[in-house]
Design brief:
The complex is a heterodimer of chains A (about 375) and B (about 475).
Chain A: E1 4-8, H1 13-25, E2 30-35, E3 46-50, H2 56-66, E4 70-73, H3 90-110, E5 115-119, H4 123-126, E6 133-136, H5 148-162, E7 169-175, E8 177-179, H6 186-195, E9 201-203, E10 209-210, E11 212-214, H7 215-230, E12 238-242, E13 248-249, H8 250-260, E14 269-271, H9 273-290, H10 298-305, E15 308-310, H11 313-319, H12 327-347, H13 349-352
Parallel strand pairs in A: 1-2, 1-4, 2-3, 4-5, 5-7, 6-15, 7-12, 8-11, 9-14
Antiparallel strand pairs in A: 10-13
Helix pairs in contact in A: 1-7, 2-3, 3-5, 9-10
Chain B: H1 3-11, H2 13-25, H3 39-51, H4 55-60, H5 64-85, H6 91-104, H7 122-126, H8 128-135, H9 140-165, H10 174-198, H11 210-227, H12 229-234, H13 242-245, H14 261-276, H15 279-286, H16 292-312, H17 327-337, H18 341-358, H19 366-383, H20 389-396, H21 401-438, H22 443-451, H23 460-471
Helix pairs in contact in B: 2-17, 3-5, 3-8, 5-8, 5-9, 5-10, 6-9, 9-10, 10-11, 11-14, 11-15, 11-16, 14-19, 15-19, 16-17, 16-18, 18-19
The chains are: A alpha/beta (about 375), B mainly alpha (about 475).
């Protein structure tokens, strides 16, 4: 019998890409999607369920009803860039990312689910700013004292991996920063830099490399992980970094995105890291006093200067993962998508205001 | 030394220093002993000096086991090259010579006087019987390797010459470009690897990595092809593949028109990108060389190639003239590349960052070049990690009883140390103040003056007056 696979957060950014990849590669699998929000483009032959993942009874009831063979748990909350460095939202983020994950792991165990793939994040390791992360592999420890998001991913990952046993095989994927059509964080923020005239200013020496992964590649990794847990189970109980295997300086990624919007910085000023950090402190005060959000803060300076890319060897060896869309192609697709979306938004902006709230709790 | 050089080195003292250092401090790992060599071998080394500017010195420093085989290997391939290059030879004759060159090695007393009068390595072929004489003396297994490569290279060159004779001058596709470079350089990498491994001076695993061997040759060849674009074109030759340049200009000669400079630069950066993609594999290969002289022999050309690549990247001069590294820069690179792999990696990182710095988003290959540079950096990081995850693991791990005790001890050490310092200061101050008091220092006066706000020091006379003011009663 063909397996039934449930994708949580299947209407979100990563989730919808996972659903599309599953449909493409396993047309016979029965797919269910569980989310808070309705899908932007509902897929044929996919069952949609609505549920609050922080409510344990609701989750238990639904899993008992759907009886999936495998669960891909992508639902989670990614704080908006401007809240990334604050600790205020800790409770709400932990409720969704940690408690929500625990609910599904428990429900999976109680309902004879065979395989559980969880969308973690490289931030479980890399959100501690006191370190640099060049070419890291899975032997690097997760950090329990970093930023709220990274901490939530560390805590949830521990729950997922500890649950792996002979009946239920679990694995955690740790994708890097993800971009692609439908992304509401990275490309929009970079586009805003053009509007604000911030593109000439580079923080640090501009040599620090990052991993940035195209969303369809991340989706492929999820499908491979599910296949693995259904068959050889060599990924069971494992965490795996997922990247585009094309680490590049963060600054260069920005330049390439701006280029595809037809923008070239007229000149470039490299602001030394320490100087930028002190300006960041001042900017934080100004934000605190006036309430006007600035793009610069200590956190964003550290983010922009940090080295964080992984070796990618384990995903290649264990899952046979190989990114199929290059960063260049990914940027082209994403920027076209962004341009189309902003044109549409421009046209029906007034009518849509009411839906703006949704983006606060981005289901990923 | 020309006046221009004097001025240049006055402002680039660092480079001058490198030249001096290289001249004074570079000691060959092994030295050949011409006294003990037969005449024919000495002639061979003379020929080597004449034919190669850059390789002769490194070859002559090679381990004695490989010294002669590699020198002869070089001369034989150089002979082939001379025939290939010679435009005065009719194609039928050239074809036959190239394809039979491997049998010539075995023939006694073969030499060739039919080269054009302007051919710069004509003399080598005229005296080639010395080469074959020495060749017959080396170990049969080495001969087998050299012969095999000579045969393959001769055949590849003959194919290329035939095509050129039919009017298909110039390389069409990138695949053809790779193939051409493989015949003239990749094969050399293969042959040398066989010699290195057979002699036990390199890791045997290298033999099973044909891709790495190939990259060693292709990286050098492709970099030279980019640098020599002008010179080759002046000689009516073109090695840049049409598949690449046709994206930027309609006719190859348009690259040399100043009006097309931007297109020409973009075209050259795609050529640089194509070459740069071999860089990480070259470092990987070098990691397999054990013996110092073999390492130097292989590493120097690679380091020079990455330096050249950085020099020609987005450099409009390559379309105008022969671009050359300064002697100082060359010596610096040689100094750095004759130590160990980590030093060579630093050289690569340095020049890759220069390329990265010159890279501009207006270049259509911007992102690809950035990623290619990143690949080299990542590779270096993978063989020489700058961070140690184990240290972090220890940090994250809960403290053991022993660590706790240690930390506690360290804390008390600091406290004791502070107590001793403070105690010493206290005792010393007590003694000093005590002595001052004994000999009659008037602290009471000092304090009350300070209280009144007189912080400045008084003169001797004023002090006396002051004392008198206070002590009036007793007088």
């Amino acid at each position: 019998m063909e397996p039934t696979v449930l994708v949580t957060g299947g209407s979100g950014f990563v989730g919808s890409a996972v659903v599309a990849a599953l449909k493409r590669q396993h047309p016979k699998w029965q797919l269910s999607v569980l989310d808070l929000q309705e899908p932007i483009e509902p897929q044929l032959q996919v069952q949609y369920w609505f549920c609050d993942i922080t409510n344990q009874t609701e989750v238990e009831t639904l899993i008992a009803k759907i009886k999936p063979t495998g669960i891909i748990h992508t639902a989670g909350v990614v704080p908006h860039l401007k809240d990334r460095y604050s600790r205020e939202a800790r409770q709400s983020i932990f409720r969704v990312n940690v408690d929500g994950t625990r609910n599904f792991v428990t429900a999976a165990r109680d309902n004879n689910v065979k395989a559980f793939v969880w969308t973690g994040s490289c931030t479980a390791v890399t959100d501690d700013f006191s370190q640099q992360y060049p070419n890291i592999d899975e032997s690097w420890p997760t950090s329990s004292h970093s930023l709220v998001y990274g901490e939530s991913k560390t805590a949830a990952e521990a729950i997922v991996l500890a649950a792996s046993n002979q009946h239920l095989a679990t694995c955690a994927l740790r994708p890097s920063v993800i971009f692609g059509p439908g992304d509401r964080q990275l490309i929009p923020a970079l586009h805003a830099c053009i509007v604000n005239g911030e593109t000439p200013f580079a923080v640090g020496d501009g040599l620090n490399m990052w991993d940035i992964t195209y969303v369809d590649n991340v989706a492929d990794a999820h499908v491979l992980a599910m296949e693995n847990l259904f068959s050889t189970k060599t990924a069971a109980g494992q965490a795996l970094f997922i990247s585009n295997e094309q680490p590049l300086p963060f600054r260069d990624f920005c330049l390439a995105v701006w280029k595809s919007f037809g923008h070239y910085p007229p000149f470039q000023v490299n602001i030394p890291r320490r100087l930028a950090a002190s300006i960041g402190v001042v900017a934080e005060w100004v934000t605190w006093l006036t309430g006007y959000p600035a793009s610069l803060s200590r956190g964003s300076v550290q983010d922009a200067c940090q080295i964080r890319y992984c070796s990618g060897v384990k995903a290649r060896e264990v899952l046979g993962y190989k990114p199929s869309v290059s960063i260049e192609e990914g940027i082209r697709i994403s920027c076209n998508d962004f341009a189309t979306r902003s044109r549409m938004q421009g046209r029906c902006d007034s009518g849509r205001r009411g839906r703006g709230k949704r983006s606060q709790l981005l289901l990923d | 030394m020309r006046a221009a050089d004097v001025i240049y080195y006055t402002f680039h003292v660092q480079e001058l220093r490198s030249i001096v250092q290289w001249k004074i401090w570079h000691h060959p790992v092994h030295e050949r002993d011409p006294e003990k060599e037969p005449v024919s071998l000495r002639v061979c080394f003379d020929l080597l000096d004449q034919t190669s500017r850059s390789f002769s010195a490194v070859i002559q420093e090679l381990h004695p086991e490989l010294l002669v085989p590699i020198a002869l290997f070089y001369l034989i391939l150089r002979g082939l090259d001379t025939i290939e290059d010679d435009m005065t030879l009719p194609i039928e004759k050239k074809d036959a010579l190239l394809r039979d060159f491997h049998t010539i090695n075995e023939k006694e007393g073969w030499s060739f006087t039919g080269s054009g009068p302007d051919e710069k390595d004509r003399e080598l072929l005229v005296q080639f019987h010395y080469v074959t004489e020495e060749y017959r003396k080396i170990k049969p297994v080495y001969r087998e390797f050299i012969n095999d490569i000579t045969r393959k290279m001769g055949a590849g060159m003959a194919d290329y010459c035939n095509k050129a004779a039919k009017g298909n001058a110039g390389v069409e596709t990138i695949e053809e470009y790779d193939e051409y470079c493989f015949y003239v350089a990749g094969l050399v990498g293969q042959g040398l690897t066989q010699l290195f491994v057979e002699s036990g001076l390199a890791n045997a695993a290298l033999k099973d990595r044909p891709q790495l061997q190939k990259s060693m040759g292709l990286f050098l060849q492709k970099t030279n092809i980019i640098r020599d674009v002008r010179e080759d074109w002046d000689d009516k030759r073109r090695f840049w593949p049409r598949e690449i340049w046709s994206k930027y200009v309609d006719n190859f000669e348009d690259l040399f028109t100043p009006a097309n400079q931007e297109a020409a630069l973009n075209c050259s950066s795609e050529m640089v990108l194509n070459s740069l993609n071999h860089a990480d594999e070259c470092l990987f290969y070098l990691a397999g060389l054990k013996e110092q002289s073999v390492f130097n022999f292989a590493a120097i050309p690679q380091a020079m190639a990455i330096a050249t690549l950085a020099l020609v990247f987005r450099n409009p001069d390559i379309f105008k003239k022969n671009v050359k590294m300064t002697k100082g820069a060359a010596c610096q690179t040689m100094l750095d590349s004759t130590q160990n792999l980590s030093k060579v990696c630093e050289v690569f990182r340095k020049f890759v960052r220069q390329i990265h710095k010159k890279n501009t988003p207006k270049d259509p290959n911007f992102l690809k070049i950035s990623i290619a540079c990143g690949k080299v950096e990542q590779f270096i990081e993978s063989i020489f990690p700058s961070q140690n995850p184990q240290a972090l693991v220890r940090q994250e791990a809960p403290e053991t009883e022993e660590q706790k005790k240690e930390r506690e001890e360290a804390k008390w050490d600091i406290i004791y140390m502070l107590m001793i310092v403070m105690g010493t200061l206290f005792v010393l101050s007590f003694i000093m103040i005590g002595i001052a008091w004994l000999v009659g220092a008037r602290f009471d006066l000092a304090f009350s003056e300070l209280k009144d706000g007189n912080w400045r020091s008084l003169g001797k006379d004023n002090a006396r007056k002051m004392a008198a003011k206070y002590d009036r009663g007793e007088l």
